[in-house]
Amino acid sequence: MATRVKFCGITREQDLCYAADLGVHAIGFVFCPESPRVVDVQQAHALSRLCPPFISRVGLFMNQDASTIQKVMQQVELDMLQFHGQEEERFCASFNMPYIKSVAMGGDAAAITQHYQTATALLLDSNELGQAGGSGKLFDWDKIPQDMEQLVILAGGLNPANVAEAVINVRPYAVDVSSGIESSKGIKDQQKMKKFIQAVRVADEC
Description:
The protein is an alpha/beta fold. It has helices spanning about 15-20, 40-50, 65-75, 90-95, 110, 165-170, 190-205; strands at about 5-10, 25-30, 55-60, 80-85, 100-105, 120-125, 150-155, 175, 180-185, 185-190.
């Protein structure tokens, strides 16, 4: 099965369009105010409408209240939510939309993965508990619990040079990248985007 690819932290039309041309499966829009990749509702609305069919539009939130998330959902065309903070499962599931829950592999990942049974997938990232992702740091893939029932999205420090090794070793459902395909924060690099996709496809054949 081909590994799915999500490009997160998209802020520009040209980056989204090139990602779509490359065949990514999902695009992430960051709504966390503290992130250097944050987009406002107007930006996200315009970008989301550019996504062609069969590319999932994911809205990323971190410890934000329900009313804030609902307002975004009302104004931006999203297909899925992603929670990157300490949100409880009941909260994540309350929006009647498929969701991804980020797991901080710097914390007690084994305990966390026992929860969130309603999640479409768990995104394993290199951050510490309570920290945002996008750190550009790898984590020890041997720490991934072997008994996970949810689909695994692998994140944390992935880039064109190491994603093939990650796919071969972990065989995740999907890989998620942000800083690893950037020239600066929030600005994607087309060569890095292309090489990342190519590396994933090579690994799928191994």
